[in-house]
Amino acid sequence: MRYCLALDLVDDDALIAEYERHHREVWPEVESHLKACGVTRLEIFRLGTRLTMVMETDDDQFSFDAMAAAERENPAVQRWETAMWRFQRPTPWTEENHKWQRMTPIYRLGDA
After folding, report:
1. Which residues contact 108 (CB under 8 A, 6 or more apart)?
2. pLDDT at 38 over 80
3. DSSP letter assigned to residue 94
4. How many domains does the chain have?
5. What is residue 66's predicted lDDT score, i.e. its pLDDT?
6. Cβ contact 35:53 at 8 Å
């Protein structure tokens, strides 16, 4: 399955540059966590302060609820998420107590 999620960044060029530096060296524990939860590919794109994450998952292994539960049990992932929140802001449409918000697919070439 492929998911697309959105999140905003603090509108500060220095913080955005630091956020990007962190993502050039994502902690191994974070990458291991994602893979263990069934994430097979993950990319993050930025336009200004808007981030878009494209995440591909193993349908038999992945669920958002299971990933959130595993995150709560993983101190390294919790530290990463806390550190990243310094740079991040919810979009105007983000559900309360969430960070990344799932986007609604509206078009796919080849779908009829």
Report:
1. none
2. yes
3. P
4. 1
5. 96
6. no
Show the tokens assigned to 83.
């550190």
Domain of 57, in residue numbers: 2-102
Residue 81 lies in a domain: yes
DSSP labels for 13-34?
Answer: HHHHHHHHHHHHS--HHHHHHH
Model confidence over 70-108: pLDDT tens digits? 999 999 999 999 999 999 999 999 999 899 999 999 999
In-domain check, residue 108: no
Residue 111's pLDDT band (cuts 50, 70, 90): confident
Asked if the structure places residue 96 within a domain, the reply is: yes
Are 86 and 79 in contact, with CB atoms under 8 Å apart? Answer: no
